[in-house]
Design brief:
- By secondary structure, the chain is mainly α.
- It has two domains: 46 residues; 211 residues, MetI-like (MetI-like fold, Orthogonal Bundle).
- It has 13 helices and no strands.
- It is elongated, with a radius of gyration of 39 Å.
């Protein structure tokens, strides 16, 4: 096929030379005739050589037998075999699954402990925020404004490289403190919104019935507040869980950092990142189911339905 194409190119050049020769001067006609005599011979020789190299029983325009021209094709691997190969190279080899397991533990520790810290600290900040004393109210407002306006990654790096720069401290502890302080600002506003959603007449009714203010809050206001804030609290906790993926910036080997280490060793970015994404989705789904069960337990209507159904 290639040699036939070369022959056609020679013929194309022949036509061009003939046109060129037709425009030459009378004294140059001899040179043009020599060109016309040389090029057909070369094209004919090319055609003859192409015919000589063709297999016996085939013409120039007829391709050779498929068995002669087909190269050995090992075949492309199937989708499942490529997934199995990627799983073996990214997880099994060199016990790389231990990186994922340890990273998963670190992610869970940071998420759970920072949530506990932020939950209790947020209650304290909420109390200060709702106080009429400006010495308590103004610092709480400033704290909430700063924490909600600063990116979490910036707060984390400030905590590690500035606040604890001169202290030999585990970066996991720094991560728990940074995430807990940030989570507390959001939780404080969630608490405040939940408390404000309760009718103030219930507080007055509780005091009129002989309850103290603390007991009225504990037994009347707080159960209703928990029931109303749980959906928002659930979303904030899942957001915090996903935001722990940035702790690798301060040398914490979490789940995301583990996938980055595997990628640097295998030069395969697709499988480790997809695997980590699936793990985060699975963890978020489990947390969502757990908090939904807590939400059902906090709802008196659902509790009554369960008792009646039992």
């Amino acid at each position: 096929m290639v040699k036939s194409t070369v022959t056609y190119l020679w013929l194309f050049m022949l036509g061009g030379c003939m046109l060129l020769a037709s425009g030459l001067k009378p004294g140059d006609q001899l040179f043009a005739s020599e060109i016309r005599n040389m090029i057909p011979q070369s094209a004919h020789a090319e055609s003859v050589s192409a015919g000589a190299s063709a297999p016996v029983g085939t013409s120039l325009n007829q391709p050779a037998a498929m068995g002669d021209t087909r190269s050995a094709d090992p075949g492309t691997p199937s989708f499942f075999s490529s997934i199995a190969e990627s799983f073996h190279s990214n997880i099994i080899e060199e016990n790389r699954y231990l990186l994922i397991v340890n990273g998963l533990k670190t992610t869970a520790i940071i998420a759970v402990l920072s949530t506990v810290l932020g939950t209790f600290l947020g209650a304290l900040i909420c109390y200060m925020r709702m106080s009429r004393n400006p010495l308590l109210n103004l610092p709480a407002k400033a704290y909430i404004f700063i924490q909600r306006g600063t990116p979490l990654l910036v707060s984390l790096m400030l905590m590690y490289y500035v606040v604890f720069a001169s202290v030999d401290i585990n970066p996991v502890i720094v991560s728990i403190i940074a995430f807990g302080l940030n989570f507390a600002a959001y939780v404080a506003e969630i608490y405040r919104a939940g408390i404000n959603s309760i009718d103030k007449g219930q507080m007055e009714a509780g005091i009129a019935m002989g309850f103290t203010k603390f007991r009225t809050i504990l037994y009347v206001i707080l159960p209703q507040t928990i029931q109303r804030i749980l959906p928002v609290y659930k979303g904030e906790f899942i957001s915090l869980l996903k935001m722990t993926s940035v702790v690798g910036y301060i040398a914490v080997q979490d789940l995301t950092k583990a996938s980055d280490i595997i990628r640097s060793r295998t030069f395969d970015a697709f499988f480790p990142l997809c695997m980590v994404a699936i793990l985060y989705i699975f963890i978020s789904w489990v947390v969502m189911l757990a908090l939904e069960n807590v939400e059902k337990l906090a709802d008196p209507k659902l509790r009554r339905k369960q008792v009646q159904g039992a």
